[in-house]
Write a structure and sequence with these properties.
Largest sheet: none
Order of helices and strands: HHHH
Strand content: under 5%
Number of helices: 4
Shape: elongated
Structural class: mainly alpha
Helix content: over 70%
């Protein structure tokens, strides 16, 4: 997912709640507050795709198809250059 797609996720209150849970859990593990920025970065990197796949399957499949097409186009370009 690109940065714009991730930013759209942050507008969803359910995502913000999940990030706050992650902040609390990881801060408890560390023994100090890890900060909202780190918690947000970690949650987006580790859990955003799975959350989206579970809670918004249609949106996830659209994003995956769009990103999959871009990735396959890049592979074709690089493989043709190698020949």
């Amino acid at each position: 997912m690109n940065i714009m797609e991730l930013r759209k996720l942050l507008k969803d209150k359910r995502v913000v709640e999940e990030i706050n849970k992650h902040l609390w859990i990881e801060s408890q593990k560390a023994g100090y507050s890890i900060g909202i920025e780190r918690a947000t970065d970690e949650w987006l990197r580790l859990y955003a795709e799975g959350w989206l796949k579970y809670h918004e399957p249609a949106k996830h499949s659209r994003m995956y198809q769009r990103n999959g097409k871009k990735a396959s186009a890049k592979k074709k370009k690089t493989s043709s250059k190698r020949k």
